[in-house]
Amino acid sequence: MQDELSPEAYFANVRKEIEGPYGALEGKKALVLGIANNQSIAYGCALAFRAFGAEVAMTYLNEKTKKYTEPLAEALGVRPELYLPCDVTIEGQLEAAFDVIAQHWGKLDIALHSIAFAPRDDLHGRVVDCSREGFLTAMDISCHSFIRMARFAEPLMTDGGVLITMTYYGAERVVEHYNVMGPVKAALEASARYLAAELGPKGIRVHPVSPGPIKTRAASGIGGFDELMEKAAERAPQRALVSIEDVGLATAFLASDYAKLITGDTMYIDGGYHIVG
Ligand code: 0WD
């Protein structure tokens, strides 16, 4: 706190800079990628963004999944014109989503990337056996799509902004059965650091968020996942499993001005598991 600031002046200053605790995201515009169902981590984050006052735009994977996530879009108050198709493997779809954001909002404050994929045979095999095609597919969907998201978000984050992606402890330590997603998430975390360095001068922060294991559809593709969750509950210092609500609240904090001088670092939301893992 600067010397000349009286406590009263400091409180007035902080209140001017950061809207009230429940308005921490008041007026913010957030794009959310990765809501597959109401168990998705992205759904927990979108709920928290809304609770703190943000408006949410949301993508769906394709026409087949659209009808399943439509009720979630309605629950989140997503305007129909901001409920957008986005399979990042289809040329132009991610860009088109950002074009619609530019057209309707003219700006963007928060972009959440909560998608990942690896072909089953590569995900279930040893890294040493991973195919070139499988590796490239996993890297494209789970890592390079975040870099593209940053490229398209940059011109829209005219008042600064926050880019958030979901990673996992398997990026840092070998986690049995995580296999090729380990190096893919390591690339994602390293990419986030470089994006944070490149975009920091524009007031754009970049955060990899690393939740503990959560029973979601994507997670069901990881071998031995139930054992992983049991081990996490037993060994994590807080002896607790993480929920999508827990991830949402912490991610909303990162998206808010309360985290305005934090960027580039992986934030673990895992009951402390990574310090003992
Ligand atoms: O324990 C967990 N569940 C953890 C997940 C722990 C730590 C991190 N994560 C990460 C995942 O690696 C992923 O990056 O969180 C992110 C979200 O995963 P999730 O919420 O666990 O899983 P899910 O609800 O399946 O969302 C992933 C979504 C896909 O859902 P489905 O179930 O259809 O695979 O990623 C999306 C899709 O909606 N997705 C794509 N989106 C656009 N283009 C694509 C694609 N090509 N492929 C998958």
UniProtKB/TrEMBL annotation:
It is an enzyme of class 1 (oxidoreductase). Gene3D superfamilies: NAD(P)-binding Rossmann-like Domain (3.40.50.720). It catalyses: a 2,3-saturated acyl-[ACP] + NAD(+) = a (2E)-enoyl-[ACP] + NADH + H(+). The active site is at residues 168, 178. Keywords: Fatty acid biosynthesis, Fatty acid metabolism, Lipid biosynthesis, Lipid metabolism, NAD, Oxidoreductase. Substrate binds at residue 118. Pathway: Lipid metabolism; fatty acid biosynthesis. This is Enoyl-[acyl-carrier-protein] reductase [NADH]. The gene is fabI.
